[in-house]
Specification:
By secondary structure, this protein is α+β, with helices and mostly antiparallel strands. 58% of the residues lie in helices and 15% in strands. It contains 4 helices and 6 strands, in the order αββββαββαα.
Length: 186
């Protein structure tokens, strides 16, 4: 019973780590406009930090432009301020009703820099997953040492944890490959 709980808990933590890696990857600009660039951007709206996607519709009419249309026009200035304060490096164009973002193409040098950044993000994700694996395995070993579970259950539990780790590391590698490809294509 205790090993199953550790495995379930570990998988939940690993899923949260994957969500974090995906979120970080989405923030990296690839030279193409896509709503994921700004949807999670936090806007101070009526004194509360709110994700942009909760207060505005974000669309991409073409590969180099994003259109942000807030549901409340009074939020335009707050959204503009959040974009200027972000690490996107894009200046918003506010016409009083919507905000347009022109996403300039990335230079070759900048693409290579961004590819390195993405690679580092992926490695940090892998390290986090391995740390989670080690902590879960430590719990299982402690259960065995305290005679709560048998040696077979300990082995099977650690094997299950390793399979989860391998699964999520493979997902990170797939995301990295896709993001790197997006960065390097013009």
């Amino acid at each position: 019973m205790a090993v199953k709980d550790v495995i379930i808990q570990t998988e939940g933590i690993m899923k949260k780590t994957m969500d974090s890696v995906i979120h970080e990857f989405n923030e990296v600009r690839t030279g193409r406009a896509h709503p994921g660039l700004v949807e999670e951007l936090n806007v101070i709206y009526y004194g509360t930090s709110t994700p942009l996607k909760q207060i505005a519709a974000v669309s991409s009419p073409d590969a180099s432009c994003l259109v942000i249309q807030p549901w409340d026009i009074s939020a335009l200035a707050d959204i503009e301020k959040a974009i200027l304060g972000s690490k996107l490096g894009i200046t918003p164009n506010n016409d009083g009703k919507i905000i347009r973002l022109s996403v300039p193409p990335l230079s070759e040098e900048r693409r290579k820099e961004m590819a390195k950044v993405v690679k580092d993000m992926a490695e940090k994700g892998r390290v986090s997953l391995r740390t989670i694996r080690r902590e879960a395995n430590d719990k299982i070993v402690k259960f065995k040492k305290d005679s709560i579970i048998s040696e077979d259950d300990s082995f099977k539990g650690q094997e299950s944890i390793q399979k989860l780790t391998d699964k999520y590391i493979k997902e990170i590698d797939t995301l990295l490959e896709k993001k790197s490809k997006d960065l390097m294509t013009i």
